[in-house]
User: Fold this.
Amino acid sequence: RRPPRSTHCISSAASDVYKRQVYYLEGVLPIALFGKEPLELELAGVTNDSLDVSIDSFKVVVPTLLKQFGVEEGVVIEIVQRGLEPLGGGRVRVKIPTVKTLEAASMTEEGKVKRIRGVAYACKTSPQLCNRIFETMRGVFIDYIPDVWIHTDHSKAGLSPGYGCSVVAETTTGTLLSADSFFSKAQESTPENVGKECALRLLDETLFGGCVDSSFQPIAIFLMSLSSNNHVASLKVGRVTKYSYYLINV
Assistant:
């Protein structure tokens, strides 16, 4: 019998609700791109936490970043159920296409910020927390740019209560710069603190500039190392993170 066109795979993370999903996606993505068949992956665990990039930012930034390397189909990420740290309980479905080669990307024109989009989310808490995060972020951004749209996502799913936000700034050249912030129980962060921290982080990324933000530098650099040798790939960054230094040295 002829095998299916796409490979359906349930990650080992599906049996462990504590695992961070973006941690796995960062490793699986470069490998799956060069597979024999497109990969359909389902992950269970933590979608948003204080350590890794949020699944919301990953969902928006990575498909656009891959287009710079000639992957036109892009990666499709569907958040089935949000799950916050520490217990998680979230589910994400991912579709990754295959390519024969990656084109050498030239990302040197950062452009100017023309709009900001994002999400304020809360799980197993009051829906009003999302609105408080949104109002705080809008109060910061309104002094710099009028085109700001942040939607709220309240859910009773997942295993842990909490809240956070993710925002992405798009420039005139199509560059995406992202920032995340998450409730910290140790610091007793209020929704206003979370919203303000996220907004200031994004302003910090735009201040330093570059064609990729600090969180996605390693992914961009790794994709450059896998791209075609016929042309030289180029990338402009605002500040090089320590993880990027490690990756370049490897």
The radius of gyration is 18 Å. The helical segments are 21-32, 55-67, 128-141, 191-208, 217-226, 242-249.
